[in-house]
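Case study B.
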Amino acid sequence: MSGAHMTGSELSSEAMNEYVSVRIGNQLFGAPVNEIREVFAPQSVTTVPQAPAEVAGLLNLRGRIVTAIDARRRLGLPPRDADDAGMALGVERGSEIFGLIVDSVGEVLRRPCAELEPVPAHVDPNWRSMVKGVHRLDKELLAVLDVSAVLGMANKDKAA
Amino acid sequence: MDDLISEFLTETAESLDVIDAELVRFENDPDDKAILDNIFRLLHTVKGTCGFLGLPRLEAVAHAGETLLGKFRDGELKVSAPMVTLVLQAIDQIKYILEELEANGAEPAGDDSELIKRLEDAAMGKGVVEDKAPAAEEVPEGWDADLGRELRPGEVSLAELEAAFDSTGVEGEDSAEIVAVDRDDDIKETAADEPVENLGIGDFDPDLGRELRPGEVSAAELEAAFESAEAEPGMAPPEVITPDMSKEEALQAAVAELSGNDPVAGTKGEGVKMTKTVRVGVDVLETLMTTVSELVLTRNQLMQTIRATDDEELKGPLQRLSAVTGELQDGVMKTRMQPIGDAWKKLPRIIRDASQDLDKKIDLEMEGSETELDRQVLELIKDPLTHMIRNSADHGLETTEKRISAGKPEKGVIRLKAYHEGGHIIISISDDGQGLNTEMIGEKALDKGLTTHEELARMTEAQIHRYIFAPGFSTAAVVTNLSGRGVGMDVVRTNIEQIGGVIDVSSTRGKGSIFTIKIPLTLAIVSALIVGCDDQRFAIPQLSVRELVRVGAGSEHGVETLNDVRVMRLRDQLMPLIDLHEKLGFGEAAIQSDEDSGFVIVLDAGGRNVGLVVDNVLDTEEIVVKPLSDSLRGVSAYSGATILGDGSVLMILDPNGLAGEIVSAMDEEAYNENGARSAAEVQDTQRLLLVRAGGSEPKAVPLALITRLEEFEGDAIESANGQEVVQYRGRLMPIVGLDISIDVGSGERQPVLVFAEDQTAIGLAVDEIVDVVEERVDLQMSSGKQGIIGSAVIKGVATDVIDIGWHLDQVRTGSVQRRATTTRRKVLLVDADAFARRMVAPLLVAAGYDVTPTGGIHEVRVVAEAGETFDALVGDPTALEKIRAEGFWVDVPAFGVTDWPDTGQNEGMTAVLPKSDRSALIAALDKASLEEKAA
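Model:
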């Protein structure tokens, strides 16, 4: 967790939100840092026939079975190229570990809490259930992911 | 504070469970003081702690219950069922409040005054009271003038305390030994230096002037304790609560008392009963379990790698590591084992309540409660067991009147049994009630469209009984709140199958029913078969694999289709096949044409055989079963996932899940039997030609023997040499009337059955060709009637079955021989089936062979002993093999004739031919004789 993009003074005492920034499709998303256990490159994903569409498969992370959820699928975006495995955010839920597969992972961003705005009207309604709010950055919007919702576990809130 | 509350909740929940069970025991045995004392003490402790923790609602209810119990204990009140029910209600209320406390962190708002009043009324004798001489002395309630209230458990009156304090020096928090009361009702005492008489509960303490209550110590002991002051600071929470103690300390004391801690080990060692157990959180055990499993996996990986290399140095230590890991694994597995009695704890209470609700007398017997099983499994079967017990009570056992009028003892018995058997735990629930109502179940099954009348008629009772496991099935006329909603048994079965178990039922009307559950003992590490489908691999638990068979081209087994389901014949039973590609929706089916071959894994899916078709069978491995992610739980095909030694993740297939839609459980046996029957029927059904010949009754001719059906113009039939003939395909064909006389040269069209062999043809004239039927022919062999094999009921009419051979012989004796062979070659025909013999023999005779028909090995031996020789053996392949095996005519060509020529019975046969292809058989025989001649 290095680097920080700051507007305003680094000595500011405002409350800050920290996000792991990721790209899914062309959109910049932020996953709250405290929900992300690790970031890794998904390898040898075993596809699971008959599984729900967004389950990309299962993979082995240091001896633990991780359920890979494809974020693009969840967000209704077209799939990545076949040879692009993307990156994965490791999220723990109860006794399970999930890997949320995104296109790429960027730096950790720190944004003032106060800057968090509600989801704008033009955002895809399907996304509303999975996005908690937005931060307006210089050049684009940072959409804050509701990680539980994206994993499809809105009902089961077993916080890590 | 939170920790204390949590511990309190856990402890109290356990206590309440015990109280439940004990109350039921007590009700049956009200004179047993020990049980009552136990109950009283437990409840008393609960009450006390509630007081300390500031839980007034709980305290009040517990107190009222305790008071009532106290009356029993003192003999002032007689125990009666309504009384016990009342106490149980109090317990239930406490449980409820505890639940709310756990959920919300505080007692729920509410009022129990109604319940409390009833308890108090009962205690005051406003219920049924029988005067009894008071057992002991009139004990004054421990009213402490100083405190201005009753003494609470563990409390000593202030005056005494002061006295005790004055006589010794109190060192801060140090206090003395604790007379802690543990669940076994044993008083753990530590001996003091002075020979103080250690008094127990109920003993009369001269100082106090009354009996000791649980948790109380006699004043003398207190003094002694204070004097010796052996406790280490911090380790010995004060047992005696003084008003100037902080609440923390008071709590610690209470909790220590509850948990039966004996922090000061018996230094003098007398009379100390240490419970050698440790409380460990379940999550700690789980972590340990997972870690050990990973260790096992890593060990497996290492072993694999080592196998590949030749590093001798590593092998030794690795073997050690492997052995130690195995031991560790075993040890950890043991920690997961719990006695099944834990799941049975609640049952006595449930039965008691049910017994009251239903107004039936029920006895619950439990055998084998110490049988251990995996904790996870225990959790999963708790509910199913409860459900089944309720069912037995509700639907199984009859009402008392019915039982008596049926001559049964008035008390119904439900018996629970558990024992280990070969890697499994077997649990049985039996009742001596009215048994399952087969008719009603059958009707219900019909109603729900689960079966048809015909199928039902063919089912055994046991098969019909299995319908109770169908979803939504309940024949209960009235749905009680106990059971009968029809969601029960199928959920039970699913739950049990989820853990790899099976359940079955056996029932006799009027006598009772037995449900038997069989569950594998260990869950975590299993042996698995790794199979491949395209480039994907899957694991199948070895326990479910019954057999491995090759199927398709080049193997003995062929894939057939029956009722749109692909099946395979496995030792005379038809087994449904599932292609893994198709089931999982990828790739192409393994066996699509006759040239394809594959592997069939014969799986045990809930007791039935199902064949899984895969491309490859790769390996067997020990795998750790990892539970399925929630997101995958809905996919019935998988029961979990695993990581192989090479690090790859594989799905573990669930045979039950795979088989689910193909054949539902109930149909299994019916299917097998049906399948076998249909196969048998196909074997036994003959295609018969029904004709009328000389009379109005129909006659039957095996169609297989007939080459062609023709109709000749009456004037086409001529007479030559006294034999009716007709010009047929460039030759003269003799015609013989089948019991009829042929009108030569008449105008009528004459139906003729043509039998052709090579160049020769013979016609059998009949009056009328009626029909072609395919029927099971139950042949009643007739004795002596020439020209007739026997008779059978065909289409409801007794019909003669014509012996074609005989008729043909009639023709032949007068007519052109097939060939001028000087010697007819001799064929031994072996077939147990008389009909088959009768069918094949005439063919061979017509083809110019001398046929010796035999039925079985005995007749064959007779023939052999008579020194007969043969040029060929023809018949049922199995029989021919047997003959060969006995050494008869070993170098004589043998031709197997069977319905299913691909069934791989061609060991040592020159050829195996289908029964229906007569000419192929003749051709083969001819060929063999030509070869022989040439040789």
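Chain B touches chain A through 24 residues (CB under 8 Å). The remaining cases will be described in the next quarterly update.
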